[in-house]
Protein 1
Amino acid sequence: MENNREIPYKIYLEEHEMPRQWYNVRADMKKKPAPLLNPQTMQPITAEELEGVFCKELVKQELDENTAYIDIPEEILSFYKMYRPSPLVRAYCLEKKLGTPAKIYYKFEGNNTSGSHKLNSAIAQAYYAKQQGLKGVTTETGAGQWGTALSMACAYLDLDCQVYMVKVSYEQKPFRREVMRTYGASVTPSPSEKTEVGRRIREEFPGTNGSLGCAISEAVEAATTQEDYRYVLGSVLSQVLLHQSVIGLEAKAAMDKYGIKPDVIIGCAGGGSNLGGLISPFMGEKLRGEADYRFIAVEPASCPSLTRGVYAYDYCDTGKVCPLQKMYTLGSGFMPSASHAGGLRYHGMSSTLSELYDQGLMEAVSVEQTSVFSAAQEFARVEGILPAPESSHAIKVAIDEAIRCKETGEEKTILFGLTGTGYFDMYAYQRFNDGEMGDYIPTDEEIAAAVAKLPKI
Amino acid sequence: MENNREIPYKIYLEEHEMPRQWYNVRADMKKKPAPLLNPQTMQPITAEELEGVFCKELVKQELDENTAYIDIPEEILSFYKMYRPSPLVRAYCLEKKLGTPAKIYYKFEGNNTSGSHKLNSAIAQAYYAKQQGLKGVTTETGAGQWGTALSMACAYLDLDCQVYMVKVSYEQKPFRREVMRTYGASVTPSPSEKTEVGRRIREEFPGTNGSLGCAISEAVEAATTQEDYRYVLGSVLSQVLLHQSVIGLEAKAAMDKYGIKPDVIIGCAGGGSNLGGLISPFMGEKLRGEADYRFIAVEPASCPSLTRGVYAYDYCDTGKVCPLQKMYTLGSGFMPSASHAGGLRYHGMSSTLSELYDQGLMEAVSVEQTSVFSAAQEFARVEGILPAPESSHAIKVAIDEAIRCKETGEEKTILFGLTGTGYFDMYAYQRFNDGEMGDYIPTDEEIAAAVAKLPKI
């Protein structure tokens, strides 16, 4: 453990060491996340009600708070082997550059064509849709990682994939769109003429650039009005955290293999899919009193749901068609600034992570984007990986922690999640390289105004 | 060997199994490649003459035909550990899709930020420049992979990196440019006002889009007119094949570990860096009579130097400032069509590969780009990796071989090089997705006209 020379730059598990079950952290929580509410009745939603929108097996996973381990189906395990195990990397070069006594590790999820961890849940959701005999799935995408991941999963399983892509992204990120098309997905700029809600929004707001909330509404309508289609979502939901637990399970297995115990675990947090997945098995140990860890959620200062939001029931989408959940939220009407970390521009947070945070089991910090891009650049130059802006939020805080160790002389072991690569984010890097990037922090008044519109429950 | 179940999807060597020496295939060639010629005297060039342009140690490697194994310096080994070993992947999903009895493997070099194998030589060339106490290096880049790789290597070693990027690429691929800038390189659109040759060309051809030949000339001028700078090149040279032998050495070690022997080894060929690196150790066995393999070089039908060129002395660059080498060439004045595989648009071929081909030790085929993109798409959908257009040339021929095995029932083992990813090539994919991609095959007359202008030696 103390002999650094024995720890390789990258730890890859053998295939037979890969997890064969997902871990459901809710099973070890004494106080569970609050139940989802039906937006019509404001009563806890039933499985039957959810099954009109989501696949049956996924509804079961969504509502299951008690089963700790769920078998990963063989076909999903095979797909995982195409791009997993992902490496656990010892950041020797970054440590040297910082001159820190800290030991820094990162779990790198970017080595697949979707460019992020999103594929872990996309293949699971597509698999259950296929198992149910469906023709296809619908979804929305903003920045494009989730849409890309779902396209890949659907191409593999020969399932139709319909993606509603926020219009401004569709136009500004034509290459993301082309990756999805190469994988056979149909990509529609939202709002579109294809759905009733899309037509209504276009009439009401001529020339609108679209929004994630609107794209969700269109995707849900498309799923519920076509026979044998269901809607799928890439974050926030408990089922997504379940699938993403594969990140944490692999990281823990790799660390256990070399006798490494992290002191602090850091992840960026938008809807919570990556952070929830990374920390799950470690949090399980903490909940069971077997070990202690510090957990830090890193969010953008421009969209600080945990650090400046309220813990309340709220709509998950702007169109208010999805179930409500109790979460840290800035209000579903909160409009985050056009920051360059599209994957973190979500008004709320996973109900599980929200509850853990509320119980004081997890910390949260917010960071500004120019400092995030500085950290990204420093990291890229010594570690050789060009990180996604979202992932770079975790890098920023990991570097801060390592510098603190340098000051105190502590040899802490830091683990952070490097969720993806920035190959499709070069416009943001260009703004940074040209010194044209700014920061935006919402005022207390702006947040108060959005929070004031929360539903009264 | 026959038990497929024992072979994992991806074979990763352990760090201690990684090669610690490069292999110089020329050492095992009875008839060596013809010597480089000085463009002024047309006599074999001396080390001293080359050292004005290239680093001393690299000149030594360039001219060394007899040392079979050369130690990889420790600092380069450390850098390799950041992104190597690269996986040897068993293409189980592709085999299943094709229904072939063939066993298909590929060595995947795309899992690093440069997106290709180019980093293997970039770090070596940057390292020797640093060792020599130089301030920086200059180079040209067309598609951008080489420039990106060199930027990464220079950032790691704190060496200045000046890239002359063909103007049309600079404008059409702003994101490639931004990756290089993020790694601290200065990127100049070529032809520029910075060099004499650049100014001359701009005067002569106002509004020109630039060309690789012109960018090389500018980079060489920049290297020779600044104190403590040298010029570096990403392909064609023997030193590059030497560094790239790490691909083949790793592939062979991984295959040996599992008792796998390839029957046929396939790689795309532009200047020859990837193909030369991949086949080197296998070719060594063939040259020494220890084993037999089929080797297939795949080139674009639009730029068919091996299959339709002549074996003769030619200039390596359009500006005629670099040494001449004997190679299969279409003539340095040959203008390949604007195909989407920028990395394969080179008029000549590595002198080592040219000599091996001339001796009948290697085969070559040319393929058209629409068939290449069809293969790329088919591959991407089942193997989950979006390949670069260059790499997809090898995929196309590997699939053809596998289909032939299906027809004959042969259980051949196929190995091909997957040199990189296509994240910065989505414009090409878009053309393909939209059905707007064409093919271009030069006429015999066009080739004859270019070949007629070869220097008389």
Protein 2
Amino acid sequence: MNSCVLCHEDGGQILFKNDLYRIILVNDANYPGYLRIILNSHVKELTDLSDQDSIKVYEALLICERVVRDTMLADKINVASLGNVVPHLHWHIIPRYTNDLHFPNPIWGTATNNAYVPSGELLIRSKELAVKLIEKLAD
Amino acid sequence: MNSCVLCHEDGGQILFKNDLYRIILVNDANYPGYLRIILNSHVKELTDLSDQDSIKVYEALLICERVVRDTMLADKINVASLGNVVPHLHWHIIPRYTNDLHFPNPIWGTATNNAYVPSGELLIRSKELAVKLIEKLAD
């Protein structure tokens, strides 16, 4: 039995799940509307998937980015697959704003706007995002 | 005329170029074997491309990851499209080692191993990577 947290826990509020992956809304107080696509199986790198499955996951990434753009009205979307700490394949999809906690740094970099608190409007949009993504993926 | 640096400069040593994108070897003394795929046109987000073009770029990303894995023998590959500073679509493909300058943080995070210097072996592998990627993409 392995000790990987993403093998044993959902990793957040599941908005969608199929045989290959699940999409969760990340519980990060600084980044409303932050999504992760998490592979169900314990694979480490993108190229550990078949090309066909890898492209299926990428198509989900495009859907997530599109819905995040449409609902969160961010200044930039950041997308990353890192996995240095948890080497179980997952994509981060993060709406970024020029006044947010780390902008223009990645959210893993140095904080630049320490006084930042996401507006109530962003929290509302994050709820809309969850609804729209569920609708979109149910199609 | 825009001021985007990736519209006016190659952005590094070009290993491959087609109508849609170029692949460059990043000149980063701490991270030999670090590649970027840079779109030729000034687009900001993945979803600014047609799905067809977006998947073409993703297929190039998979080829890059595969060749980086095979030649750099990294402990993990990091992949990201951020663009907060230069909002011109580009993918980072970064071979990571458990003893490298920032591990397990992303390379944009806090340095953890300040004494790290890449081995000569990694510099040799980086040259092999360039050769193999050029061969692979010429197929």
